[in-house]
Structure formats: structure tokens, C-alpha cells
Amino acid sequence: MMGVLVTLLTYTLMEGITWCTHKFVMHGWMWYFHEDHHQPRGGFFEKNDAFFLIFAVPSCLMIVFGSMAAFDWRFFVGIGILLYGVSYFLIHDVLIHQRFDWFSNRQSLFPRYTQGS
User: Fold this and answer.
1) At what angle do helices 73-88 and 51-68 cross, to 10 degrees?
2) How many domains does the chain have?
3) What does the pLDDT look like over 24-54, one tens digit per residue?
4) Are 15 and 81 spatial neighbours (Cβ–Cβ below 8 Å)?
């Protein structure tokens, strides 16, 4: 039960961490990597995709080290970060920015974002 609570708490806290990272890091000293995310897409990948590593590496490390220590709290923190990352990817990259052609009628869901915002 404690693992579920740690996972849910981590998932919830990730929204604030992501907001702060976006405001102060991506629109701050790492603007070079984030800038192309606010421009029309020229190819499949963006420099902005490097930010995936900022969250994926700690998540993977927490899962590995937590599983090596009898699935302690670190494992569940890693799972919370992972689940948030999957949710963020599906909502932000797939639905809002439409980087993948997975849904044929997306424009009716998010008409404000159809011009590659």
C-alpha cells in the first residue's frame, strides 16, 4: 500500500516539477534546446526532445536501485516519474502538438493547437 501512495504522490508532484522546469529551465538557461519546440516542426525530432533524458534517466536509476534494494521507496518514485512521463507524452506530444498521426480527428479535440503551437 505504501508503494501505491509513494507512486501517486510522486506522480502528483511531477506536475509542479515539470511546470518549474518548463518556466525556469526551458525558458531560461536551456532555451537553446527548447526554442525549436515553439517553431514549426521541420523534422521528426526536436532539440527539445533532449529534455526527455532529464526525467527518464533519474526515473530509470530510481527503478533499478529501488528494485535492487527489495523494491524500496526509490522503485515507486521511479514508477511515479515514469507514469507521469507517459501521461505527459500522450497528452502534450500526441494530442496537443499532434506529433504523431495516431488519431484521425484530433483537430476537433484541440482546435486552438492545430497550427503547431
Assistant:
1) 150
2) 1
3) 999 999 898 888 888 777 777 888 888 888 8
4) no
